[in-house]
Amino acid sequence: MASTTSFPADTVPQAPEDPLFGLARAYRADNSPLKVDLGIGAYRDDNAKPWVLPVVKKADEILRDNPELNHEYAPIAGIESFTSKAAELMLGADSPAIQERRTTSVQTISGTGAVHLGALFLSKFYKGSRVVYVSNPTWANHHQIFNNVGIKVAQYPYWNKETRGLDFDGMKSTIAAAPEGSIILLHPCAHNPTGVDPTLDQWKELAVVIREKKHFPFFDCAYQGFASGDLARDAAAVRYFVQQGFELVVAQSFAKNFGLYGERAGCFHVVTAPAADATTTITRIASQLAILQRSEISNPPLYGARIASTVLNDPALFEEWEGNLKTMSGRIIDMRNALRSKLEELGTPGTWNHITDQIGMFSFTGLSEAQVLKLREEYHIYMTKNGRISMAGLNTHNIDHVAQAIRKVVGETL
C-alpha cells in the first residue's frame, strides 16, 4: 500500500540522534564493570551517584510542611520571590541597575528556556545586526536555539589548540570586526565545553571593544557558584558590564548550582542602560516578555523555583547553600589536581597543566576523536568526541583507570 503521509522523508528527514543523549544510551548499554561516564553534564559524588544538596532537602521539608501550599498557576513572569532574588544573585543586591529599577526578570524553563526566550525577544524586537556571535566551540544547543528563531549564527575564535587555553586575541579581533550592533553571546564563567575563562582584565578589554562597536551582550550563565565556589566571583563579568552602563540580557540556570536538573528552574534578566526613560523602557520590555511567555508555556513550573526561593530568601539556608557549592566545586578541583598529577606521574606524552588551568564542570582534554573512540571501545570510558570530559564523572574509584587508559591511548596514537 502506497504511503499517504503528508510528511514524506524528503520534507521530514530522519534527524540524527542528539550526540550527548546517544552517548548516554551507549554508556547504559555497556555491561563492563570498568565503564566510566565522563559525558554527563551533571554533578556526581565520589561514588558516581547524583547528589541531592542537603540544603535542598531542608527546603523540600519546609515546603511539604507548609499547610498553605497549593498547586495553583504561578504568575506568567514566575514567582516574584524567586525572580527578584535570582536577579540579586546575578547582578548583586547593591547593583545600580536594580536600585534604579531598570531590570526585569522572567522565570524560565531553566537556562535553555532563558536562552530561547532571549533569542525570541531579540528576533522580534532587536533592530541591530541580525547575527549572534558565539564562541568556537560553544554549547551545541546555542546554534539550534538561535537558528530556530531566525537569527543567524557566526563564531568568534575561543579555543587555542596549541596552548589548550583561550585564544583571546582571536576572540577580541573577531568581535571588533563584527558588523556594528551584533549580538555577542558570552559565558561569564565555567565556559562550556572548554572550561577556559577570560580573566577580569580581559573581560574589561572585551567591554571596550563591545562598546565601541555598539554590540549587544547576551550572557549565558549556567554555573554561578558551581565554578569557583564563589557566587560573586563567578558573576564578576556580568556585574562589570552592568557597572559600565551596558544594556544587556542574562540567561541564568539553577540546574547545576542547586542540583535541580530535572526541575528546570531558571531566569531571564533584561538590564537597560541608565537613562531618564529607563524605567519606562523596562516596563515595556517586561510587557512583551510576558506575551511571549504566555504564548509558549503560559506559566512556569513551581517546584524548582520554590526550592530555590526558599533558600535564597533565608540567610541561614543561603549560607548552607554556599557551603554545598564549595563541596561540589571543591571535589571537582580535587579531581582536576588528581588527574593532572596521575597523567604526569605516568609520563603521559604532552603537557597537562590545562587540566588544572581550566575551571568548572568540563575540561577540554585535547584528545583527538580517534583517541576518544579508542578510550570508549577498549577501556569503556565515555566522553564526547571532541575530547570534552565532565570532571564530575571522575572519582577516587575510577581515576587510576582513566589516567592509565589515557596514558596508553596517547602513547599508542602519537
UniProtKB/TrEMBL annotation:
Its cofactor is pyridoxal 5'-phosphate. The keyword Cytoplasm does not apply. It catalyses: L-aspartate + 2-oxoglutarate = oxaloacetate + L-glutamate. Keywords: Aminotransferase, Pyridoxal phosphate, Transferase. Its EC number is 2.6.1.1. InterPro entries: Aminotransferase_I/II_large, Asp_trans, NHTrfase_class1_PyrdxlP-BS, PyrdxlP-dep_Trfase, PyrdxlP-dep_Trfase_major, PyrdxlP-dep_Trfase_small. SUPFAM superfamilies: PLP-dependent transferases. It is an enzyme of class 2 (transferase). The keyword Repressor does not apply. Pfam families: Aminotran_1_2. Residues 35-406 form the Aminotransferase class I/classII large domain. GO terms for molecular function: L-aspartate:2-oxoglutarate aminotransferase activity; pyridoxal phosphate binding. In eukaryotes there are cytoplasmic, mitochondrial and chloroplastic isozymes. Homodimer. Belongs to the class-I pyridoxal-phosphate-dependent aminotransferase family. PANTHER family: ASPARTATE AMINOTRANSFERASE, GLUTAMATE OXALOACETATE TRANSAMINASE 1, ISOFORM B. This is Aspartate aminotransferase. It comes from Hypocrea atroviridis (strain ATCC 20476 / IMI 206040).
